[in-house]
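so the lab meeting is tmrw and i was supposed to have these ready like two days ago... anyway. pasting both below. for each one the top line is the aa sequence and the line under it is the structure tokens. i havent really looked at them closely yet so no promises
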Amino acid sequence: MSKIPPEQEWFLQADYDLHTAKAMLRSKRYIYAVFLCHLALEKALKGLVAASTGEPPPRTHNLILLVKLAKPNLNHEQLTFLATLNTASIATRYPQELAQALKQYDRKMTKSYIKSTEEVIKCLRQDPRLKQ
């Protein structure tokens, strides 16, 4: 039985989480879809950290910290999205009022988050430090 490299395992899990985010979108569970977008990007960034450092990534949910460690080649729009999602994940993990969170994360916004998540993960996968 062959063991896959840690960075590939992180990306497999990121794909699984992104697929689940899409399922949550279809079932109108928008808060969970946004949460899973964050989780998918967190895992993809951790895969890049593992690939670039040869060490296990830190146990953190902070996308900004992971970007600093991974040093991915992302454009300004992608970095801005990561910063936005980094803050959004707090509200999706600990909503003070469900009705307000449901109003904030509607179908249109959630679809946009999923699309941006797909684009960032696609970009991260193209990093030359990843074993192809």
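ok protien two:
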Amino acid sequence: MTEEFDLLLSGGVVVTGAGIRRADVGVRGETIAAVAASLPREAAREVIDVAGKYVFPGIIDAHVHPVYLDNVGASSRVAAFGGTTTLLHFAYARTGDSLYQKTYEMIEDGCAHSCLDFGVHGGMFEAPKQVPEIPRTMELGVRTFKFFMTYLKQGWYTDDYQLIKGMDLLAGRGGMAIVHCENGGGIDYLEDKYLKGPNASAKNFNKTHPAALEEEGVFRAIRLAEVADCALYIPHVTAARVLRPIRQAKADGLRVFAETCPQYLNLTEDIIDQRGALAKIGPPIRSADDQAALWAALRDGTLDTVASDHAPKAKDVHGDFLA
């Protein structure tokens, strides 16, 4: 019999968008050629018995930061061990950097060192100088660019003028804005209030990033995107109340997409009591009720993606404050 498949995965529990079922998977080259209840073993060059094991399509992680403890090559190897086959990396232009140059360098790095398929998002820490580079950077094939409504004190903040200007440039070229949505000025004030002085404690961290300020940022980003007619991707959604403006935007027919992350789906805010500063995430991990709301939002389509926000750091990378 002529071999029809290069590889046959036999007897697995196959997970697809349509549901979960026991099935065989036939692979030809790098393509899934057949999924059926029973495929003939003699039709395959190699057969692997995966009975009782889950078989997933290759996972796409849309939110990866290979710029701290690892790099594009290392993060791709780690991801491959976990069943992820495509990574979307953020190429950040920090203060004084060229957005075009940093994006070009990450594409070159990925081509040379990634063992997985990859894509690149542009990211801006100095919006007034870097937003004008968006059109040229898009010539590299990049269509998504990140803006920060937070980190005002650090100088990474994008004000509303630059945000809508960037959205306008993207909208006219088929691009999409990615916006870290929290109220930067409000958070800076709350950090000064709760994280300075003799009573500073990691347990106060969630007080400095309340869900109300995340909701406000999401609402503002959506309305600016509506005015600019720009597609919008909202990363790392954490709380029930943040889902409200997202649901309204989708009901209004706006091109708004929203993401949450495993840490918000699997941990709750009591982890701060257990791990202190090591549990510090921005935006923070929230309550069990918020977690339940995120799971429900995944089921009903309010949330479109789950992504890692992979950004490993050494314990002392920003100093050991509040440890």
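from a quick look at the 2nd one: The chain has two domains: 5-55, 59-306. The longest helix spans residues 211-228. will dig more after coffe
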